[in-house]
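Recall that a protein's primary structure is simply its ordered list of amino acids. Everything else, from secondary elements to tertiary packing, is in principle encoded there. The following example makes that idea concrete.
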Amino acid sequence: MIPPVKKPFAILKWQLVIILAVLPMTAQVDAASPAPVIENERVEVWDITLSPGKPILMQGHKGAVVTMFLVGGKIRSTKENGETIVSERKFGDAVCDALGTEHTEEVISESPARVIVAELKEHPEPPYMNKSGYPAAFPRPGSLKVFENDRVVIWNYTWTQNVPTPMHFHDKDVLVVYRYDGSLKSTTPDGKSLVHDYKSGSIWFNQGNRVHFEELVKGQQSAMIMEFK
């Protein structure tokens, strides 16, 4: 993937509240509103670690919220009406909450979970017209679709070292979350190449309307890739 295009920041609209386990839900709570790691006209993104025994209140104020699991675990979700659901989450899982939905998330397994939370903004863009003659970036051989609605589609993909992907056209903007430490070489049709080193948990927003292929040249790499419709 090529480096993201920087966009101006807007006012934080998604709130994350740490709820002290010793207090009831109606008590005064400590609040933490971390800055998003990515913010532009299409999405705001937060990288959140969920610690065992520390419930977190999730609130989407201006758009639907998509949660992608970078590190999974056993998660207890409690809705506003008190309904509780316990789920085993793994890397690559994704769930979506509608506009205005509010619920708590709590890890009840031993190790922390790590989630990438994306609040979708009302800024629809039609797919870029593909005049390249190459196939769309997704689906591609080895890709797994894990989620789709009218706003986004999310893929899990693993690169194999020294095995290039097909040359492809990105007809949509994408948010990419990398799982491992690994280096990908991006090569355009004119033969120009760039190598990017990605760390585990690296998060990139890339605009579409580009053609290239990718090749893993160092380490290992897998990613969750959210395409915006």
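Residues 1-32 have pLDDT under 50 and may be disordered. The chain has two domains: 15-120, 144-228.
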